[in-house]
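Data availability (excerpt). All sequences and predicted token strings are deposited with the supplementary files. A representative entry, Fructose-1,6-bisphosphatase class 1, is shown inline so that the format can be inspected without opening the archive.
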Amino acid sequence: MKTDPYQPNQGNLAYSVGVTLDRFIKLKQSDFPFASGELSQILRDIALASKIVNRETNRAGLSNIGGAFGQTNVQGEEQQKLDVIANIRFMRALSKGGEVCAIVSEEEDCVIDLQNNSGKYVVAIDPLDGSSNIDVNISIGTIFSIYRRKTPVGSPITTEDVMQPGNQQVAAGYVLYGSSTMLVYTTGFGVNGFTYEASLGEFFLSHPSIKAPETGKIYSINEGLELEWEAGVKSFVKDCKEKKYQSRYIGSLVADFHRNLLKGGIYLYPATFNNPSGKLRLLYEANALAFIIEQAGGKASDGENRILDIQPESLHQRTPLLIGSKHMVEEAEELFRISESEINTLSR
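Structure token line:
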């Protein structure tokens, strides 16, 4: 019987010694015969940039790079100094590799055309999610999506290359900078997590073949916005409380998502009266995490539609997001529909 060298319960020596991210990527490269190593190199470039951002994050309190930068990004959000630093690090890493033709970043107003017409891939990235938490030492992260361009290699990039639905992703992942730094990613063949060993400067496979529990007892939502919620959201949260579920909300998307991915739970950032289109960005936040959660057996929805099937119409498009354990997301969707139906009946 052939065994999986990445499963720890099989007593495999390679696992106990530690499989590095670089080696894991090389061994999995055969999953993408069309890529000729380019996709693997992009993942390595992202990993390299994340090591640098991890270093900067860890010394933020000592090197005066915490706090606000003094400008706002295209979202109208105040940029933190580390937002700018992280954006620069990832832009440099992705542009120097030669595999990427365009980048979409939360910190940039427009698409970054790298003028590399031979590049086969487009990367959408949130360089530093939750950066407002840096000054209080709360976990933050990086979120990324990778797409194959649609237009022929050698031609200039077009809107078609960038505005792709999430179901066209070839890879997606996130880096969590916390008590330990982790890189979690998928290429459509399951989800694997790697923990950074700073003394060796390497990511090591620590969470092979991650599977999200089908249900859980954690719900994550900003309850400070309750007065702006629609009736369906209130019904679901009330139901969670009646079932004595645990409320856990960090305010850092990657951290909340990561906890629920491993332990079982649901993260919600629904539409509100003030933000009817939701708050989170589709291209470089929701799509990436939706790809990951589905590969782990979970579900991601905007309350009505599968996140990965939404056709983006603008670069920084926002979306409501319900994401996590499959059964919990389905329960939320059902309560949303029931409540809306009851309201419509009463209003007639």
